[in-house]
Amino acid sequence: MEVTRKNFKESLDTIYSAIEEADFLAIDGEFSGISDGPSVSTLTNGLDTPEERYHKLRKHSMDFLLFQFGLCTFKYDHTEVKYIMKSFNFYVFPKPFNKNSPDVKFVCQSSSIDFLASQGFDFNKVFCIGIPYLNQEEERLVREQYDERRSQSNGVGTPSFISPNSSKGPVIVPEEHKVFIEKVIEKVEDLLHTEKNSVHLEPCTAFQRKLIYQTLNWKYPKGVHVETVETKQKERSILVSKVDEEERKKREKEKQEKEQEELNDSVGFSRVVHAISKSGKLVVGHNMLLDVMHTINQFYCPLPEDLNEFKEVTTCVFPRLLDTKLMASTHPFKELINNTSLAELEKRLKETPFISPKVESAEGFPSYNTASEQLHEAGYDAYITGLCFISMANFLGTFLSPPKQHISARSKLIEPFFNKLFLMRVIDIPYLNLSGPDLQPKRDHVLYVTFPKEWKTSDLYQLFSAYGNIQVSWIDDTSAFVSLSQADQVQIAVNTSRYAESYRIQTYAEYVETRMEEKRAKRKWSEDSWKEVERKRLKVQYAASLSTSPSYGFPRKGTPGKRSMSPIQEEQVSDEMEEGEIQGSDESGASNWTSTSPAHTKSTRKHKKLKTEAVTSSELFEVPQVW
Amino acid sequence: MEVTRKNFKESLDTIYSAIEEADFLAIDGEFSGISDGPSVSTLTNGLDTPEERYHKLRKHSMDFLLFQFGLCTFKYDHTEVKYIMKSFNFYVFPKPFNKNSPDVKFVCQSSSIDFLASQGFDFNKVFCIGIPYLNQEEERLVREQYDERRSQSNGVGTPSFISPNSSKGPVIVPEEHKVFIEKVIEKVEDLLHTEKNSVHLEPCTAFQRKLIYQTLNWKYPKGVHVETVETKQKERSILVSKVDEEERKKREKEKQEKEQEELNDSVGFSRVVHAISKSGKLVVGHNMLLDVMHTINQFYCPLPEDLNEFKEVTTCVFPRLLDTKLMASTHPFKELINNTSLAELEKRLKETPFISPKVESAEGFPSYNTASEQLHEAGYDAYITGLCFISMANFLGTFLSPPKQHISARSKLIEPFFNKLFLMRVIDIPYLNLSGPDLQPKRDHVLYVTFPKEWKTSDLYQLFSAYGNIQVSWIDDTSAFVSLSQADQVQIAVNTSRYAESYRIQTYAEYVETRMEEKRAKRKWSEDSWKEVERKRLKVQYAASLSTSPSYGFPRKGTPGKRSMSPIQEEQVSDEMEEGEIQGSDESGASNWTSTSPAHTKSTRKHKKLKTEAVTSSELFEVPQVW
């Protein structure tokens, strides 16, 4: 079911009850882009720590807009032995609902937009009839403004102004407005002593209107009704009417109800996310880290800087999350599933030993046909994510004795997969652990190498040709991690590099230490109070500059437009996509224009892919304990 | 005529000849937003210098996308005594055309998008079938890459590699790829000595493909054709075919022609702008500074930092520009025209003493009807801008003796208006002068005031209540210009403020001096070489910190969400729009969420508006010399 601003309000009850009755929910989001900084392949370095990955995504992905949100609710019918699903495809847009509402600026990445366009995405539905939303802070502010307006209007017996000054009594009218306000009072006195019902004051400035409101509220707490009206020429002026108490209250009430409704409308789509959150139901997604980050960032609060705080917030908003990509990459599935991209996974789970689940659309809901794919429509993606979850959960039932055909979303069997979000393309840490500390793999075979920005992957292969098979994970134009096949080669490599001029090698441990020091220096800065910092200023700055400035002589950042020359030129080709999520941006993100050598990241990824399978061993991964 | 990616190529000749035959051209652009920083009313301070305004627009407006470009060509038919117009409405989008093309990120401002949506703007036409483009540097890079690919393919007699190393002879094959490459050579030898016509090599990495290309080019400069093919699974592999010289050359030629065409396609809409530029024709726009900035930034080169450089670039790209808003605000028009917004101007120019020009659509071109407005479609806006220009130009002819009914775009009468772009909402400098230094009005009645961010316009009115009528131009949350009615009050105000703790007053001259010093310090930084800076480091930093750190104790930047409390609360209302250009963003820009007190800027604007009429006197403005 497609939900836009046009039918949102009338659909809310349907949505609420679908969530309420469901056994579990599946979600998916479509964004206006993925990375506004480095290319996606640089954004997702194979040796990122969970902290690093979180910081990068927070920095480079959150300015994009989540503009389509898919929700699919699944309810198990025990008598019919099938799931009943209700799917919703929401178009979401931060339409400013009035002059006080936030004017959101969001970024679009042309490759992502182009990709969605090629999938038949309807941008007019987003931009013209997208459902508005407010995050919690924005909602609080708007409600405050509303209360403020209410207390300023003469609906309340005595005016209770927010401003401490004006609440005390007579309004302070600046000298130059005194004559103006006196004239207004004359006119109102006139009104009160004649037959007329109302008087139209002449157009004036916002400030003067404020003064009028305050003065009349104070002078005539009862008996007159003051409201702002707009002329055809969009000029605003004030209409003062004589009303009896009853009429005045009625008018005020109507106005307040209208405002209250507008306010609820402006909270808009956030109400759906609140309902999902409040339900406490299991929420399933595929490769859902970015979906979760965007959902919280857009509808709850700006993401915290600290990963642990993010984990806390996320667990509050979504107490139970399950990532089907992580599930499919874990024993006992990973042995059976080669390609965990959503479309491929869905296909694979239709074949033995898996069993396609029986799922039907609820009455009145359109059904999706998995044969004619509608991939990258958020509602459809949420739907097949749900299908994948059901198939995999049921497969776990076959390990029980006696085997069980249906495994519910509340089964203990799936608990080991809870709150572990797949970490895309990280070699040795399969997931971000929302309910505890993250895995810390040994990285004693890894080198941190810095070099001139002209270097390409081939130069690194040549440099380390003596060490057998290596694996390169690019960090940026001038640095990369190089994983050697044996940890005992690390010291040799470091020693050999000591007299090199063009490049520099550190062990992974040294790299981490340097980063920690930089962080400590930084934190010191922000934690100390201004005055203290001022006192320590020269000293601290000097120390910081020592630890951050590189000790070799080539620039750190590539100049866009400057072409690279290296001993061996690589052909520039694109690799097969690894993941279905906005593939377009993935592809051209990797061939980012400003990157001086798009090709290197490509072959890196290919290598990484091979390696991933070898390294993500079950020793590193918390294997579910049930079997 | 609507032009998208679908009909762009077939329309190019029509567009070129329309430009070629025209007497003058009118243009207009629609953008995805106006300001990604301060609200529009803060962006356009009434006392901006042209440099300041340019810097602000460059900083806060250039990340938006110009996504609709209107071009209307006007050709005068002397026999029929009428203009023939051809109007084009281009949808423009930076679609990445292949993996090497730039992946542009652009910002959208929800108020602007919402405004365009309310005007029936078709976003699908932009994002799905918008015409691509490249700026000149991008085009150069793509052409270079193309040449590189050509020289690497075996179309050329001898391979001439870009890479100095590989051009010398045998390819350096890294140790681990040697076996692989040897196998490839074996296969090719096999091919050459059997009946087969071609051999399909197994899929391999991009790097390996590069090695294959280089090796085979070097080993078999003639006799084999090497090409990369893609399998259904999107895997790339290499196909080696036996070909005779003629066949090989034919294939290469075809491939090159196809690539050349793709390349021209990717330059796309920029070709239209190049044609406008090359024609040297008069280009008319309404309030066109942003249009010109976006056009140059998007289709030529990133805007230079320096205003004078911008003037140079602009004069190169558009040798003759005319801004109808500036023209309408100037003698003899300003005495006759109250509202210079495009829609109002067009209406006014239909009435006496002006005469509606006779303008007809060329055959085959749809005609616009000014009665049923299609404002904010770029093609329509360009069209009525042209109408306004014709009416005003012809009006100048009535001053001649004998009066002339038709004034051509080449008439000396309109030259005084050339290359002067309207400066929106600047009190005392009506235009940016592209062909010379800008006007420098006296500002000795102006104070620069800094204060706590809780202050509102009313607080400033109160502070200066002793000085009679004042005018406030907000700079940011904690500073504003205050113009006194008499210059001799300035020193009194400065003296009075000396012992104030919460606020601080400088004369405008002092303010300018401080800014200049800051600039000099900054420039020193960037001009000095790294080593020199390193040596001077501590000294310079200390000096800079003295000149930039405020001497009072409240924070400079408002915290979003923190509410302001001031003695007098102002009602928050929106003002009448001053300008037709994306009014939506104008409106809600002014009520920007992060601004702690949206109201203050409003009343400022109102005041400014009144003042503008008083101050933009003909003494300041270069009045055309003709009358």
TrEMBL record, chains A, B:
Sorted keywords for this record are:
Cytoplasm, Exonuclease, Hydrolase, Metal-binding, Nuclease, Nucleus, RNA-binding
Region Disordered, annotated ranges? 244-263, 551-615
MF terms (GO), sorted A to Z: metal ion binding; poly(A)-specific ribonuclease activity; RNA binding
What subcellular locations does the record give?
Cytoplasm; Nucleus
Matching Pfam families: CAF1, RNA_bind
Span of domain R3H:
178-244
Compositional bias (Acidic residues) spans?
572-581
What InterPro entries does UniProt report for this protein, alphabetically? CAF1_poly(A)_ribonucleases, Nucleotide-bd_a/b_plait_sf, PARN_R3H, PolyA-riboNase_RNA-binding, R3H_dom, R3H_dom_sf, RBD_domain_sf, RNase_CAF1
Answer whether the UniProt record assigns the keyword Cell membrane to this protein: no
Q: What spans are recorded as compositionally biased (Basic and acidic residues)?
A: 244-258
A biological process (GO) of this protein is: nuclear-transcribed mRNA poly(A) tail shortening
Q: Into which EC class is this enzyme placed?
A: hydrolase
Q: Name one GO cellular component term.
A: nucleus
- Give the catalysed reaction(s), semicolon-separated: Exonucleolytic cleavage of poly(A) to 5'-AMP
The domain of life for this entry's organism is Eukaryota
Ranges of compositional bias, category Polar residues: 585-601
E.C. numbers: 3.1.13.4
Q: Which family does it belong to?
A: Belongs to the CAF1 family.
Recorded protein name is Poly(A)-specific ribonuclease PARN
Which organism is this protein's natural source? Erpetoichthys calabaricus
Q: Which gene encodes it?
A: PARN
